[in-house]
Design goal:
alpha+beta; Dna Ligase, domain 1; four-stranded parallel sheet; eight-stranded antiparallel sheet; about 30% helix; 18 strands
Length: about 425
């Protein structure tokens, strides 16, 4: 039977702030506005312990590529992000680790309220009766399930592939009239030249996107009406592989948010939470806020409405499991504020989904953000990066590292941590400092 092991604890949804509640009142967090009302909770009881697998290169698998080698760029990304999966785990669960890492950072997380799963590698014997929970379902994930003898309840892989395809998302945006003006599907180089030649009105430039990609990968930025050689070469490779690329005008972004849904096999899809995103000037993801006010939730309600429609649509196609939707507020060419509710559709786990899990680390009344940034070792300094960061923060803030100091014997290129602040205003200053 196909299905997905999405969890074992009890989950409910807090309204209207949509805060993820795990194990009922144990992890109940109030929103900054003090909401504590509960909808009638839909409970999910999954008794089988889980094996979390961080195939963060999931979209790469959807193009037909296999699992990356451990020393490749994608292999290193998987190893460096895997420790963050503790956000979803409980003590009875296990975490598949492609490279050993310094476990001392887990002490701070467990002190802050997180569970500590068992860490396993390919050399370890696994506990019996585990259910595999990958970042996203792919043939590579299923191969791991076979090798480890874990159960793999999943939706059909072709359904997963279509749900994550940008071409499909583009078609839905046209059908539901909620996309960007000027966005287009390109199937050959002649169409590429025509579309770019008509882009004079897009003063901020444009972007080409492959059918599958994430975190700023598999895209090409450009500007002007001329098609240069790098653009042609990039498009040729993707057209040969995928038969289509997507063209989008670059717009004046105001803010972005991740909408986190859970789609059951039967019953209504559930909104688990909204996680405002932090992005740099080039659109790269730099973190997620762990808290959101009722006022912010109201701003994103139109996107939530479209997200519910999408979740129901994907359920009808046969998909079930986690769904993360990136939504964006922006100014159009006339300066009007608009919402693009389906900027990216991710039929898998997302960073925002992990951010929901890390809410357990916050104390009542605290505001929090989960930050990601490149690690820059300080030459000649014996100070840890966390101590260096702590000195930059206001005295009433606290930090909780969510990545280890070393992975596979090396310092990670990307580090992540939680910053907890006593108020939203203080948190805004922290975000400006890092992003």
């Amino acid at each position: 039977m196909q299905g997905v092991g999405t969890g074992r604890s009890n989950y409910a949804v807090c309204a209207p702030c949509c805060i993820l509640l795990t194990d009922c009142a144990r992890f109940c967090l109030k929103s900054p506005d003090g909401c504590s009302d509960l909808e009638t909770p839909r409970r999910y009881n999954f008794k089988m312990p889980r094996l979390f697998y961080g195939n963060f290169d999931f979209e790469h698998h959807l193009t037909g590529a296999g699992a990356p080698s451990p020393d490749s760029k994608l292999g290193r990304i998987n190893a460096e992000l895997t420790p963050a999966l503790i956000a979803l785990a409980e003590e009875e669960d296990s975490l598949w680790c492609p490279a050993p890492f310094d476990e001392s950072y887990l002490n701070g997380l467990t002190t802050a309220g997180m569970s500590r799963p068992r860490l396993v590698t390919a050399r370890d014997s696994l506990p019996p009766d585990l259910s595999l929970v990958p970042w996203g379902w792919s043939d590579v994930a299923l191969q791991l399930a076979i090798r480890t003898g874990t159960s793999a309840e999943h939706p059909p892989l072709e359904v997963v592939k279509q749900a994550n395809c940008r071409r499909v998302a583009h078609e839905l945006e046209i059908r539901w009239k909620c996309g960007l003006d000027g966005a287009a599907e390109i199937c050959n180089l002649d169409e590429l030249a025509t579309v770019i030649g008509q882009s004079a009105n897009f003063s901020l430039g444009w972007v080409l996107k492959a059918r599958f990609g994430m975190s700023g990968r598999e895209r090409h930025l450009g500007s002007g009406v001329d098609v240069d050689t790098p653009t042609i070469n990039w498009a040729k490779k993707r057209l040969a592989r995928d038969r289509a690329v997507l063209f989008e005008p670059w717009v004046q972004r105001i803010d972005e948010a991740g909408l986190q849904f859970e789609i059951p096999r039967d019953g209504d899809p559930q909104l688990l939470g909204i996680t405002p995103q932090l992005c740099d000037a080039t659109g790269h993801y730099r973190g997620s806020r762990l808290t959101i006010s009722n006022a912010e939730s109201t701003v994103w309600q139109p996107a939530v409405d479209v997200g519910r429609r999408l979740a129901a649509h994907l359920q009808q196609t046969g998909y079930f499991g986690p769904l993360g939707i990136d939504a964006m507020r922006y100014r159009d060419q006339q300066g009007e504020i608009r919402i693009r509710p389906l900027q990216d559709i991710n039929a898998r786990s997302t960073m925002g989904r992990l951010a929901l899990g890390f809410r357990r680390c916050l104390l009542p009344g605290e505001a929090g953000v989960w930050l990601h940034f490149p690690f820059q070792p300080m030459e000649g300094s014996e100070e840890s990066p966390w101590e260096h960061i702590r000195r930059k923060l206001p005295a009433d803030c606290r930090i909780i590292p969510t990545s280890p100091a070393t992975i596979g014997g090396q310092s990670p290129k990307l580090m992540h941590l939680i910053v907890a602040a006593p108020a939203e205003s203080v948190l805004a200053d922290v975000e400006r400092l890092f992003v």
